[in-house]
Design brief:
Number of helices: 1
Radius of gyration: 30 Å
Strand order of the largest sheet: 2-1-3-4
Structural class: mainly beta
Distance between the termini: 75 Å
Low-confidence stretches: none
Shape: elongated
Mean pLDDT: 77
Order of helices and strands: EEHEE
Helix content: under 10%
Number of strands: 4
Length: 123
């Protein structure tokens, strides 16, 4: 799964090391050699899991789709954006983790294991 492009529809086979990557940044992070660029590229569709080749020098609008399942794989890349947010559920829906300060309990909790003051008396 690519962390650089969130909506990657295909994996691309690198011509230099013959490994599959979702984007050039993933190749640069995992390999020590530069990416070899060629016009003929081998893709693997993530929807139908089938491989196909495309020639980038003669790329047309019809080539933006998988030839097996018609999945549109040429999309505008959605990259992750840094954001600060609070993790967790909405407190209005699930309030099990919130302590209500308005209701205070006194320290006199009676359990089975606490001896009763009257238990010492016989009789």
């Amino acid at each position: 799964m690519c962390k650089h492009i969130l909506n990657a529809q295909v994996s691309i086979r690198s011509p230099c090391c013959r490994k599959w990557f979702d984007c050039p940044e993933c190749h640069a992070e995992q390999e020590s050699h530069p990416l070899l660029q060629r016009f003929e590229m081998t893709f693997a569709c993530k929807k139908c899991k089938k491989c196909f080749r495309k020639d980038a020098s003669e790329f047309e609008e019809a080539d933006e789709y998988c030839p097996h399942c018609d999945n549109h794989f040429v999309l505008d890349a959605v990259t992750p954006k840094a954001a600060i947010s609070v993790e967790g559920e909405d407190a209005r829906i699930d309030s099990r983790m919130i302590k209500d300060e308005r209701v205070k309990s006194n320290g006199d909790k009676i359990t089975v294991f606490d001896p009763d003051k009257e238990a010492d008396k016989l009789g």
